[in-house]
Amino acid sequence: MTRTVMISGASRGIGAAIAQRMQAAGWNVSLGLRRPETAGPDTPQRLACRYDALEPDSERAWIRATIARFGRLDGLVLSAGIHSRATVLEAADQEFDQLIAVNVKSPMRLARLAWPHLEALPDGKPHPGRIVLMSSLSGKRVKSAGSGLYGISKFALMGLAQGLRQCGRDNRVRTTAICPSFVATDMAAGVVQDMSELTRPEDIAAIVETVLGLPPTASVADIPVHWSVEDCY
After folding, report:
1. Looking at 150, 173, 179, 185, which residue is catalytic?
2. Can you tell me the mean pLDDT for 209-221?
3. Residue 88 in 3-state DSSP?
4. Please, are residues 129 and 74 in contact by the beta-carbon 8 Å criterion?
5. Is residue 150 annotated as part of the catalytic site, yes or no?
């Protein structure tokens, strides 16, 4: 049976590139979007659902709709996230709370909801699936004062990835965090003047496809992208 992957933040950028690549690879794709009506009509292989990281009810409804439509879940790609350029001295509590809510708490809830479906098919037979968390090199180091608040949320996301890896130790549901530097998307456009050398969303999509296709005997904790010696300091 055709494998199914859920992808949050699939309206643009990295999430959209992942959705396009996975559909081209023959997977069913279930897209989590704040405005699913902008995605065009559904197809037999593609389902667009409303998802808002600040509305837990939308997460539950998305999971239910995916299983009702495709009958199984083999991958969960958590790509939705928000950015901040505030330092840890400037940031208001409200901005911090929103970063954690979108970048950490919603991915944790979605992983929890998807877990039983990633463990087994509807007939109860085990079929370990995979979770991919779209993190950042900012979850491995903080390179500037302006990336401090954002880095806190991504460090927390890396902790979530490690926690999920441990939860999947025995049932072989594997979790991988992808950690790119700046990617040529709208998020980078306001920060990086020359984006010609940046990682492309299509590059990240290729990495995600590889991870989702790995057997459960390959447990990959995280994949840094554009990591350099300077990133270690």
Report:
1. 150
2. 96
3. coil
4. yes
5. yes
